[in-house]
């Protein structure tokens, strides 16, 4: 089976193989122009994105197709070079509403052969529709707001926030522990936004080596470095143009790249690695983090100016231990998902198990709950899942309980020792917090937090 990158490359190659292929939005602006068509028009394919097709393609009817919503099959169209081709223009519709159009051609009038041509046009039309569907699946948001499960006050608040912020283009910072569902929130924002018919691109800043992240985000020109692809490569910002770009785990972005990201946000333009051409972009940015960015700012690991620039709208996703009333709904959702994806026949989960779930703090959050249920379902296979399928979880809860009682005494001793150390340093510094922080080898802002925590009077 092909992986994501291979499937995407195959679709891209298929579109590029056509003599002429163009996609426009409802305003008649170009969303995508194949390289072969760009060569015929004597334009740069990337630079045409966002420009009116009428200014690039003489006598185009793309805007007429989006206005009427009617397809035009087998139409003769004269290119800029004087060659006549057979072209098909198809409106793109979502829920009956036209959101754009695409046109394609693969042969000229010299190749026309009535019945054979009509048959080829039909087959090519089906082919392009299939590619279009696959492209949307690959680049679109996979989850909607309905897949954010729960009826707790915190979930109601998050859904209301999603509905509001999805209608703007402000940057959004989604915070929360690992496994809470931050990415689902990002998908839902894109799905409800006016940009939902454009690409939703996700980049995990922690999963890409720092030396490759820059070229992944901004793209590169041919010859930019050893091993660079011929013709260069589009960056994720360009791929997400007019759509949404999710930068997952932004806290892992190297400090040297943060200044470049800040410029992109402020100027709405990118420059490829090894290039000197400025590319205008219109991208909605969403960020996620599982760490306190303000604490990283204090430590010097995150730029303060970038923090305030991306922290325009914040959506805080609570851990599962703070909304345990949602566990029954989540269990019901996961049982149905497991049955559907694995082919099992689980009916429900015993009440005794539900009570057990309420005693666990779920450090892995919703993701952990899903894995625990999947493991139990593989043991039970069908019917109701009982306590005997959760031996591992029961042992873990028992161990956690004994560790908490043991660690509480250790935590108290550590806190007392830390407080005494701080008092000693402040005494040596005659109350000077900056000097005391140097004695303790911690940042001054961190020392202020600890002084507040231990109610120390300076």
Write up this protein.
This protein is an alpha/beta fold. Helices cover 48% and strands 17% of the residues. The chain is built from 19 helices and 14 strands. The protein has helices spanning 4-16, 35-41, 45-48, 53-56, 62-68, 114-139, 153-165, 182-192, 210-218, 236-239, 255-267, 293-299, 304-310, 327-342, 351-359, 365-380, 391-428, 433-440, 444-453; strands at residues 20-25, 30-33, 72-78, 84-94, 97-105, 172-175, 200-204, 244-248, 269-271, 278-280, 284-289, 313-316, 345-349, 382-385. The chain has a 5-stranded antiparallel sheet with strand order 2-1-5-4-3, with helices on both faces. It has a 5-stranded parallel sheet with strand order 7-8-11-6-12. A two-stranded antiparallel ribbon has the order 9-10. It is globular. The N and C termini lie far apart (65 Å). Mean pLDDT is 85; it is low at 111-115.
In short:
With 458 residues, the protein is α/β, with parallel strands linked by helices. The protein has helices at 4-16, 35-41, 45-48, 53-56, 62-68, 114-139, 153-165, 182-192, 210-218, 236-239, 255-267, 293-299, 304-310, 327-342, 351-359, 365-380, 391-428, 433-440, 444-453, and strands at residues 20-25, 30-33, 72-78, 84-94, 97-105, 172-175, 200-204, 244-248, 269-271, 278-280, 284-289, 313-316, 345-349, 382-385.
